[in-house]
Each structure stands twice: as C-alpha cells, then as structure tokens.
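Schema walk-through. Below, the input block comes first and the output block second. Nothing else is stored per chain. Lengths vary across the set, and this one has 309 residues.
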Amino acid sequence: MSDIWVIAENLPWAATLIAGAASIKNDAKITAFVNGDEAAAGGAIAAGAAEAFYLPLPANAVWEGYAPALSEKARAEKPDLILLSASRRCRDVAAQLAATLDAPCFSEGKNITVSGDGVTVDTLLYGGLAIKNSVTSASTVLVTMGAKDFDPLPVDASRDGPVSALRLADNAIAVTGRKPRAAQTVDLAGALKVVGVGRGVSEEGDLGLARELAQAIGAEVGCTRPIAEFFKWMPEECYIGISGQQIKPQLYLALGVSGQAQHYFGIRDARTIVSINKDKESLMNANADYYIVADWKEAAQALLKAVKK
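--- output ---
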C-alpha cells in the first residue's frame, strides 16, 4: 500500500485521520482533503499529510457536492485506502464514492491492518455486541472513522507540502435557498465530560436538574434516543447511540439510563462510565465502571450539593 487519502469536514478530524493513516502504514503517502480554506489545508500538512486539498463551501452549493470531483480524482489516482470522518456529510460522501468507484465501504471501522492478502477491518454488529472481521482485496477501500479513534500527531509547522483547492464539479447540487435553524451549543464529540439522560427522567421539567449538574461539573448534556426522537425534549444532535453521536469523553455520567445496546454503542469508548439507576440489575449499571443504586434525582441533588461545596 502506498497511497492513503483522508477526507474530513474540519481540520481536527482530518488530523485524527492522518494519525490513523500513519499508524496503518507509516511509509504511505497521505493526501488530505479538508473542508475550509488554504489555511486548513496547511494545517493538514502540519498534522502529517504529504499533500493537501482544501474544499471550500460555496454559498450556492453543499459540501457533499464534492463527491463527483473526489470520485473522478480517485479513479485517476487509485488510492489504496480512503479514510473519512464518520460525520453525516462524510458518510454521504463515502456512500457516493463507494457507489461510483464500485468499492467496499466499512462504517465505523476499527483495527485496520494491511497485509499481502489485502485490507482487514473490524466493524461492530448488534450495537457493539459482536465484532465482524472482514478482509478485502479490492483496489480501493473506504472506511469511516470516529473523531477520537486516534490521537493526532504532534503538529510540525515546518513541514512542507503542496496545497491546492479541489474544484467543485460543474454539475454539483445547487442550493436555491437556506433556512436558518436554531443555534445549538452542544459539542458532545469534543466534550471531556458528558451527562446522559434516559427514560428514567420521566418529566421534561426534570431536565433542568440534569443541566444544572452538568454545568456544575463542566459537562455537556446528551440523551438516549427516546428523549430526542420520541418525546422531543432535546434536539436530535443530543442523541447518543448507534445512529446518533458516538462520544469518547473522560467521564460519562448516566442518569436514569437503562443501557440498551443501541445507546451503549455510542458511549462505549468513554474512559470512565458512572451510572445512577435505581435498578441494580440494569444494563447500564452492569457496563459502568462505577454505579449508584438510587433514584437519579436524589443522587443528582446530592452530587450537585457536594460539587457546589
């Protein structure tokens, strides 16, 4: 293997993928494609890429519209491996590239290795209850990866490499209008601490206590799928799980979370998991590093009081 591409919609994620590419094959030529301007591409070079392209977002286009241009370039250059950030936009790009290149695409790939037989990738099944090990000898392989799957390499501002813009295809999707949405301040992917609320939080008004505790310990607030999609108590951006956010905080504090596989998939990489649940036998308690068997409101109030001291 000699050529690895990384495609990301922001520089921090690009740096993560560049580190991943270097760990997979330390002598590979790494080419980065990153959303933003020339400075973003320069940042990718400093993060370890040999060459970088910046993909600015025109006012009348969508970033996913770069897929045809990326596909055309991939057909010409035939990279061995393409790593993409596991964001909504890049998942869209990955699907388009896989279709047009007739290439296999692995979602949320782990433990990627390269040998004479081809590329080996682990993927999780059934919400993380099983691991599927796949080997492919395809000439180009696509893998989407999480924002914290690798630690970025040390930044070296003295690194030099070609930087240029990738041209958006003439037939790219055009935007005819935009409607602003309510601003969201949640940053679960980058949060060092996250407080998660589940169905044990039976009333919307009780979210105030969870938010107060989160603020006291410097955490973001996330939730299980029913809270966001069924009850609509929180934005969908706050949903943590197999089809929502996958996070890797230093601390995940679960309040009234049952711990079903779909949710555990999203928090399994947290360094420390603490569960508060009155059901001692709950799955969340079973998978936690520490758990408290108690009514979550009583325990949260006690924790809040302790933190405020």
